[in-house]
Amino acid sequence: MSDIGHLWWQHGVVYQIYPRSFQDTTGNGIGDLRGVTGRLSYLADVLGVDAIWLSPFFRSPMADFGYDVADYVDVDPIFGTLDDFDALVVEAHRLGLKVVIDWVPNHSSDRHDWFLESSSSRDNPKRDWYIWRPPGADGALPNNWVSLFGGPAWTFHEPTGEYYLHSFLSQQPDLNWRNPEVVDAMHDTVRFWMDRGVDGFRLDVIHMILKDPQLRDNPPSTSQPGWFAVEYDAFEHVHDKAHPDIHEQFRRLRSLVDDHDPSVERMLVGEIEPLPWAEWVEFYGAEGDGLHLPFNFRLIESSWDAGSIKGVVDELEAALPSFAWPNYVLGNHDQTRLASRVGDQQARAAAMLLLTLRGTPTLYYGDEIGMHQADIPPDRQQDPFGRRVPGEGRDGCRTPMQWDATPGAGFSTADASALWLPLAEDFAKRNVATQLDDPGSLLSLYRNLLRLRRAEPALNRGSYRPLDGPDGVFLFERLHETTELTVALNLGSVPVSVDLTGTVLANTNGDHRGKELDGTTELLPGEGFVVRVR
Ligand code: GLC
Predict the structure, then answer these.
(1) CB under 6 Å to ligand 1: residues?
(2) Whose CA is nearest to atom 12 of ligand 1?
(3) Please, which residues have CB within 8 angstroms of residue 524's CB and are 6 or more apart in sequence?
(4) Which of 1, 68, 198, 506 would be a feasible disulfide site paired with 109, CB 3.0-4.6 Å?
């Protein structure tokens, strides 16, 4: 595709908002949609991103903070109303921002009407909308599948005498995507939001929607990445996710969003657990007729050193079919905060990495000011995963956005003790207001890089070429027509000299924009440059 890179979801930058934690307008200590709308000008004009992705705001009992949906086509009263959502979309579009929403197809809430019907009797017409199995001999579980949040993936339902499947919490029963009525009903929910003007969908654990039709046992594993509960990592997950039939569902979803209103360019980005590259690229579809983007979490998984990071980028570039567009992400609502994972110094290099690679960057709220993973006292813990599996809590990366140094950090007028999660300790020093006025702040660096990325086709759509750099430095070029830019990032822990020639377009430490470099340049740990060679 010669024009690859020209679509908004290719050259644009996506910003993830966790609505509970962005801006509270009611004083109840929980963020809401009106709050998001009020902050859109910060995102569009101050920061300079192109799209927002909103984590779930649908009706939900909040067992998994909205990833347990009780009504796919309504806003939870905690977050506001459908009118508030419509107003958000209008304002976002007025500011030139695209709106991507979360879609949670693998499971609903156990309070969804569909599940209430399905569980009401064995012969209810919606019985087969979920995955029910009778107990084995002596009440045995239907198979050895385990929930990602720990414990068996099956819960026995006394009134109807069968088990139902839940890949996550028991309050999140898995929908049966082999039932065409479920597929139709879920497609209707996509249409509903397209009609309300959304520009794309982030598809929650989309690789899980189709399992082995025979529900065979998973074999034990010898080595697993360790992202989930210990019991989950004890198995090879060959049967409880990513059945090959899934690709047909992706093709159907793709046509649904492509054909709905061909004048609107919409995007599907799927949450896919890290897989070997050859399997991962299949999610784009054999002909580019699958997902627009399967999320690429490899930079989160990778150890933070130049060799490993370069390895991820080069492997991805080599694995991608010509029609497929890359993407990168360094943080989200399930992962340890970037600045805590790599350290404050390297967070500057991380900003430059994310915004200079070839591919769509997704930026997690608060990472632009270097928010840290917060320590959550045991009595304030919220995340059900962390409450079930100590040490796995995700609350620390979901704390309220730090806007300013006022007692509620500009997030809320509620008392600190009434915020749904406590503020990170350093909020009075680390916030948008203090960083905005400081040209040396991380926020200023993000703003400069976002502007540069938008202005330079070499960065937002040009090709990528790795260069040989000294140990510790990731060195690469971005090329577009006659433009050639060099990016140099010291991802190590000691200063390194690099040969750099050209005009500085951006740099991480201080402001050397416009300066001519002519040869040896010393890069401190976490320091980086973008240089125009020609
Ligand atoms: C995804 C979400 C995570 C949620 C899970 C279950 O992994 O990112 O937050 O808990 O799905 O829906």
Answers:
(1) 64, 67, 104, 168, 204-205, 271, 333-334
(2) 67
(3) 345, 490, 495, 509
(4) 68
